[in-house]
Amino acid sequence: MGQFDLKGRKALVTGGARGIGASIAQALTEAGAAVMIGDVLADVGRATAQRLSSGGAKAGFVPLDVTDDAAWAAAVETTLKELGGLDIVVNNAGIEITSLVVDVQAEDLRRMLDVNVAGTLLGMKHAFRAMRPGGAAGAGGAVVNIASVAATIAFPAIAGYSATKSAVDRATRVAAMESGKLGYGVRVNCIYPGLVPTDMGMKLANDIVAAGLAPSVEAAVGDVIGQTPLGRLGEVGDMADVVVFLCSDAARFITGAGIAVDGGMGM
After folding, report:
1. Average pLDDT for consecutive 10-residue bins of the chain (267 residues)?
2. I want to staple 45 with a disulfide (CB 3.0 to 4.6 A). Which of 8, 18, 55, 61 is the partner?
3. How far apart are the first and last CA of the chain?
């Protein structure tokens, strides 16, 4: 494993109950980290943590609504208590509500802003407070935020989602600058996943059809593949492996970066 070895490190992964988040949690444990899954899906989250634990990893679950400042404080406290530290925070939790601009609803925009933007910023806030010198963990670490290829391309029917993921990208860079200038010792980066056929990804494909932008789900997916130089959809493991890299010593001189994991779709 070499520089990708995360033995002894403790991680908190939001939205880790299923999909990309669950794959990230698994990849981190495979690299040697202990992982706490934070999610609003309590039953699914506990089951995912149990599956990781049954495979020999140290993993746990904590209920976490990322829009709630107090819930963040409690989740970090639980992670510190149960895992014995905090070195990695992955802000993966997010939602996507599809809408043409002509049909956009203010409440949908506010919900995406709350989860995707405020949730990520609160995650960085509590990561910094725990990891910086004098914090409860106090040894620095790494934060990885999950943005989206939607932050880099003009894809129809996701204007609101694209705006929130563009905000995640900008916030990542500001946070990285603050951490460096203030001596926190925390690297902050983000990735831009392409379309992955998770529940969220396939819901988007169905929504594209409902919006009249494709005749079928197969055609909607085919359009995405056609825009992707590597000629396929992403897989959850594609995303997880890059997160492990960014959390590892192999990325020790990388901060404030956004890495496209999209098969070239956003180039």
Report:
1. 85 98 98 98 98 96 98 98 98 97 98 98 98 98 98 96 98 98 98 95 94 95 96 97 98 98 95
2. 61
3. 30
